[in-house]
Design brief:
This protein has about 475 residues and is an alpha/beta fold. It is built from 17 helices and 14 strands. The protein has a domain of about 220 residues: Dihydrodipicolinate Reductase, domain 2. It has an eight-stranded mixed beta sheet with strand order 13-12-11-7-10-9-8-14. Bound molecules: nicotinamide-adenine-dinucleotide.
């Protein structure tokens, strides 16, 4: 490692504040600095160490899973994963021991053995070192995703992380380089890629039904303010409210971006080239902080902080000359939307605002015509596990399809649908949109995390060939998800 890179990493380690629970100093409203962008280009120019796209790791007959972060998302994962055969949950970890105990109860309810328990601020490190784990599954606050994945891979384990995979360019490159070096998978758990209409769109795009894809749109529009971000009983230690301060851009790009990036074969025949990004001011969060602080001292520290602007709109252009619009707004009153629009030379599919629809001309197809398309073009994974997934639940079933597919790939030694390059490219909008916003929407180059391999990488395999051997337990817990 050269001197510059070492210095760069040291600075990041000091500034990163990985486990900070108080409000950090607002040093970075600008996204990556010039120096950090130069470092990113230098790493890109070094070339790929090993291609993890299409990489098949040795088969694991039983996948032993350690789950870190047992809050709202992680505790649901314990239940979902418990339905899958050929899987053991061998380790559970949360900062708070009572959350570990609550998940042990879930294991008991699911007639699974208790797992080894880890807790405290640093318990996750011991879990990553444990000999009883093959896959570390992380549902922690954002700032822990990269450190946990790095520790997992460096200890010879595959890593699966909640979204986004990282928040800085350095973190994302570190994930890429570590996955290539250790030959451990690093999958971002972008569950929206497994939603039913998204999978239908992907298969239709693959079969040429939409023609050449020209433009796509995605989003995360979900008003989280009152009930979630400012709710003392929701996110642990108010971590997600804190993330919305001092960072101004698209902080949650991957739910909208993942499914359309797969339709456009990003990193597998095409790649992101550059983006421009624009944010509004904040019109709601500081007002809410003031309103709450007038009644409750607890919220005083959130008053007059540099909150992220309500709506961020980012435009991305691909190498093949296609465009993507991706939006982020979690603080304006609006119905939920991920947009999911994929527009090609022969047709268009759009999910939000509902109802989901497809057109091959000036008018949308009639509901019965859409139904016929669904029957014809639902990909094999939906036909194989879709109805079971709907029964198990988790965002209508998409979470379970994702979990099942991940475990089935690991058990059968198949490449994963989402590799470390997807995790890095999709997450890179987090830092890069901030840089563009801070520079009056200036164009920002998006690095090629595959370092050239995108030209030959094969598209995501939709066949289930070599897999689909993983069963699902027929246990009905008293409490359904
Ligand atoms: N894909 C999706 O649909 C989806 C949905 C919700 C949340 N998420 C993601 O899941 C992650 C978790 O979100 P959540 O809603 O469950 O938040 P949460 O606050 O409910 O859960 C986070 C958990 O991490 C624990 N934690 C914090 N520091 C820790 C440490 N040092 N060691 C071990 N555990 C620690 C907390 O105690 C808490 O239990 C986030 O990344 C979020 O973006 C994804």
């Amino acid at each position: 490692m050269d001197n510059n890179r070492r210095k760069f990493l040291r600075r990041l380690a000091i500034g990163g504040g990985v486990m900070a629970t108080g409000l950090p100093a607002w040093a970075n409203l600008t996204g990556p600095s010039d120096e950090q962008m130069d470092q990113s280009s230098a790493i890109e120019k070094q070339g790929q160490g090993f291609n993890m796209c299409g990489y098949a790791a040795p088969k694991l007959q039983t996948v032993r899973v350690g789950i870190i972060g047992l809050g709202m998302r992680g505790s649901d994962a314990v239940e979902r994963l418990s339905y899958i055969d050929g899987l053991e949950i061998t380790a559970l970890c949360d900062k708070y021991p009572d959350r570990v105990e609550a998940s042990q109860k879930t294991l008991e309810k699911m007639k699974r053995p208790r797992a080894k328990a880890f807790s405290g601020n640093e318990g996750w490190k011991a879990l990553c070192e444990s000999n009883e784990v093959d896959l570390v599954y992380t549902a922690t606050p954002w700032s822990m995703h990269t450190p946990v994945c790095l520790a997992a891979m460096r200890n010879g384990k595959h890593a699966a992380t909640e979204v986004p995979a990282g928040k800085t360019m350095d973190e994302l490159w570190e994930l890429v380089e570590t996955s290539e070096k250790t030959k451990q998978h690093c999958m971002m758990l972008e569950n929206c890629c497994y939603d039913f209409f998204e999978l239908l769109t992907l298969n239709m795009a693959r079969q040429g039904m939409l023609g050449e894809i020209v433009h796509a749109e995605g989003a995360y529009i979900h008003d989280l303010t009152k009930d979630w971000l400012f709710n003392k009983k929701a996110y642990a230690d108010m971590w997600r409210l804190k993330e919305n301060i001092g960072q101004n851009g698209n902080l949650y790009p991957t739910h909208g971006l993942g499914p359309i990036a797969q339709c456009m074969d990003i990193n597998r025949g095409d790649k992101f080239e550059h983006l421009v990004s624009m944010s509004t001011n904040d019109f709601t969060m500081n007002n809410l902080a003031k309103e709450l602080a007038a009644k409750d001292e607890f919220f005083k520290e959130y008053v007059d902080q540099p909150f992220r602007g309500n709506m961020n709109t980012t435009l991305i252009r691909s190498n093949k000359g296609k465009t993507i619009m991706v939006q982020h707004d979690v603080s304006t009153i609006r119905p939920y939307s991920r947009i999911h629009l994929v527009s090609g030379t022969k047709g268009v599919a759009q999910k939000w605002p509902g109802p989901q629809r497809v057109a091959f001309g000036h008018s949308w197809l009639k509901p019965e015509e859409l139904k016929q398309l669904e029957e014809k073009y639902a990909p094999p994974i939906v036909k194989h596990i879709g109805s079971i997934a709907k029964e198990v639940g988790g965002h209508g079933g998409m979470d379970f399809i994702m979990d099942w597919r991940l475990i089935d790939c690991l058990r059968n030694g198949l490449p994963l649908d989402q590799d470390v390059y997807d995790a890095a490219a999709w997450s890179s909008v987090f830092p890069l949109s901030q840089r563009s916003v801070a520079k009056k929407s200036r164009t920002i180059d998006i690095p090629d995390f595959t370092r050239g391999a995108w030209q030959l990488n094969k598209p995501v395999d939709l066949t289930l060939n070599g897999g689909a051997s993983t069963g699902v337990r027929n246990i009905k817990p008293d409490l359904k998800m």
